[in-house]
Amino acid sequence: MDKDASCKGMRKAGSFKGFTLVELMVAVMISAIGMVFVLSALQRTMAVLSTAEKMTTANYLLNRRIWENDQLDGESGPEEGETSGEFDEPYELFRWRRTVSEFPDIFGEESEPLKLHLWAETTTISWQGRGIARDLQTRNLTVTRFLNK
Predict the structure, then answer these.
(1) What is the mean predicted confidence (pLDDT) over 6-18?
(2) Residue 95: which of 143, 134, 128 has the closest Cα?
(3) What dihedral do alpha carbons 31, 32, 35, 40 form, nearest 10°?
(4) C-alpha torsion angle, residues 103, 105, 107, 112 (rounded to 10)
């Protein structure tokens, strides 16, 4: 009997084409570590997107509130004091505060004539948002403008 004929159905050691179990486990481990980084980046991206969405909404509400203040004040101008409130749905998570006060003493003596003619109006929009540590924090968007008395 010929030696080549008897080994015809057998393969030589090391000639098998494929991956060993250890190689597959290493590949799965590398993939799992990569997925951890990808999911972490995705979570951060979602947090940034949420913050950007809230800031955009707050900017819209701030502009709307300033426009409403102008409509309510009319020709007589604003009254000194503080007012605050909440927004209706779908903005019930946001609150506003408006403070009208004398012109601040930021220019020293040169502020005196300005105090006679200008009010300082500060409008703030506030909402609860999650910080980096995932704890709730109060976020604010504030604009101060100066109005004729």
Answers:
(1) 61
(2) 128
(3) -150
(4) 70
How far is the C-alpha of 82 from the C-alpha of 98, rounded, in Å? Answer: 6
Has residue 97 got a pLDDT over 80?
yes
**Cβ proximity of 116 and 125 under 8 Å:** no
| Single-letter residue type at 58 | A
pLDDT reading at 10 higher than 90: no
| pLDDT single digits (tens) 14-37 | 566 788 899 999 999 999 999 999
Is there a contact between 118 and 149 (Cβ–Cβ < 8 Å)?
yes
CA distance 128 to 91: 12
Using left for φ > 0, alpha for ψ between -120 and 50, and beta otherwise, residue 40 falls in alpha
